Amino acid sequence: MPTKTINDEIDKEFEDILKNIAQKGILTIESIDRLSKLFSIEQISKVKEIMGEIVKVTFIPSSRIVWMKLGTDRDYLLYPKKYCSCMDFYLQGILKNRKYYCKHLIAQGIVAELTKKNPQSIEIVERDENFKEKVTQQLSFEHFLI
User: Fold this and answer.
1) CA 38 to CA 14: how far, in whole Å?
2) Which of 8, 18, 45, 140 has the maximum number of C-beta atoms within 10 A of its C-beta?
3) Is 1 part of any domain?
4) What percentage of the chain's residues is helix, strand, coil (to nearest 5)?
């Protein structure tokens, strides 16, 4: 039997918080408090600021889904609970070879739960022909220029 790691505990607690958010349909003070104990207060305060910038892009006819954080300077590609194309994720997760939740991944998890009943509110539909362009333009090689 595999041994449990701190990452397993963080994943389990985050899932539990997301389940609670989904059940209540809102982000409660209790949920924010629990998130602040799991992640940094700085991350959580920024999460609230960027939640409106998280979108789900569905490509048709394949139904392929990509999540993105839209910004004024740059957009980020998100794979829920796995990957974000931001510099913070690169520095804290990839370079340190560890599981990491940046503010964008935390916000995506919350937005996904809050919009389950009305996904159209955050959904953008694209044609499959645009998949490669849409995804590769969000993947930057600036991380390698450090």
Assistant:
1) 8
2) 18
3) no
4) 55, 15, 30
